[in-house]
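Purpose: get a first structural picture of the assembly so the mutagenesis plan has something to point at.
Setup: two entries, given in the order below. No constraints added.
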Amino acid sequence: MDCRDCKNINCFVNNYCLPNWLGYIQYNKTSKLLASERMIFTAGDLVEGIYIICSGKAKVLMKTHNHKKKEKVQIIRVAGDGQILGHRGISEEMIYPISAETILESEIAYISNTDFIKLINSNKDFAYHMIMFYADELLQSEQKLRVTGIQSIEEKVAIAIISIVNAFGYKDENTGELDLSIGLKELANFAIVSLPSLHKVIDILISKGVIELNNKTIFLLSESRLRNIASFDY
Amino acid sequence: MKRKCETCTHFNCFINKYCSPEWKPLINHYKVTDDYTPGSVIFSEGDSVKGIFQIYTGKIKVVSSYKTNSERIVRLAKTEEILGHRGLGGKMIYPVTAIALEKSQVTFIPIDIFYKTIKANPELSFNLLMFYADEFKTSEKRMKLMGLMMAKEKVAASILMIIKAFGFDKKDTQLLSYTPSRKEISAIAGITYETVIRELSILEKSGVIITKGKSLRILNKEYLEELCNNESF
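Result (structure tokens, whole complex):
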């Protein structure tokens, strides 16, 4: 994708950088086309730049331990086109604490640290929106981690579905068909519930008329009611 | 009397360090500085965000109490640090409460002025961004690790967090410059008061720390760091 002629309205670079900088980024970025389920970066790698999803979808994975100290891979974020990947790596240490993997075939652009810093220093709107993005991520992550211990499975699933709506939007706005992209097993992982619990909650939500299930496709009938169930400032 | 940003000697303050000189009189014009006694609240969870705070003097704890009655300390902050940044973004409502630990002076900058300052001072916005990135990563790491830790390790991590925030006494390099109460340490570690007392006395018996009334003396910081696998909080 060419930055100078990009139609992606979700991309921070496209939205908030000055036109002559878009040309600069076009010449200095590296684009990769990745098939589904390919690693974009791995935990422990050195952070040498930042990634933007030009098209496609990705998931961010964190290694955690369950109560028996057994290792488990937890999906902590899903991201859609235009979103930034790898911002968790930027700090004093500059080492990724998490891994990222594509869900679908994706085009990923890579901007080196030096270019990223140049962008921030020269594009005030971009810098401002990056700050707000971090502020939001901090807020969401703290709420999520703090709350997971005391939520019901219904709340957890509602939060997971809302997060996916926020990241991917709808496949069809009119019918409310979700652009889920990940399987139910992964949805259960993302929500931090077991697969049987997920099925139970889906049945409850169907009986309440919040969602509808048709051939493994989930239709969200009332986003506002689901947000209420999530009782979460997303 | 109003203190002037132009002549301020707090060189680590974000505003002082990263704003161009011509912006300082403007901030000066709009800022408001208030005095807080120990225990008084600077902003509360649920309040709407009207601006950003900068600590001039004193020490502050940032507390969250989401859905539960027990408080958890999420951050300790001191002189020259920024306060209330967790409120920015989203619905612009504070998710945390800030309480003064000792007599403090805190400066308030209205949000529209702060936004203008960010946009006009690239160095400020860049360093603010890095500050957020760090806070974000530390916060996630802390929550992830704290869940797996034993009481002893949690106490060690809490002491390290206090050292990182407030440091040691200038004259006595083993004495903590500020020791929060035992109850506050339990709110940092997320364990009960009794467990904190027990773990501190175990650490004292093995010669890692010495308790002297309320204050703590750290004899073997390396041991505490080892307990936490050399992760920083």
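The mean pLDDT of chain B is 87.
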